[in-house]
Amino acid sequence: MRNYSVIILMLTLNVFAFTPSYSQNFHSDNIVDTAIDLANTIIITVPSSKESNRSRGFDSNHEIARHISGLTRVTYVPHVFIKKSGVPKQSRTKTKDERLSNPIDAFILKRPEIVKNKNIILFDDVLTTGATTKEITKLLISAGVSDISIFVL
What three-state secondary structure class fits 36? Predict the structure, then answer.
């Protein structure tokens, strides 16, 4: 049985300029120090909703992960997961029970070969109940990842 770490690291970032700050540099050093084997580590993201991407004009998780990858030199692999159509945004759910059940079976691991035997740094911009992260983590474990670290903005 493998051991999985759950490390929740709060990152600060100027999302509009994507410029490094003291806090970012400090945390990016922590990301590198946390990873067991950098050559075998990749950064992936929880997929943002298409609606959010359209309204902002960009995918914030993707842009932030790309930036962190550049700071840490840990490879970022985009689009590992897709969200099934028809699943409401978590922010649209009203009760705790809805938030906990909404992400169940909501994601597809599009590229399981990419994560097999890898150390994963999973990035998400928001963590409320942890239900989305839990669902993604279950898919990663079933795909045979070596380790999972979770980082949240």
Answer: coil
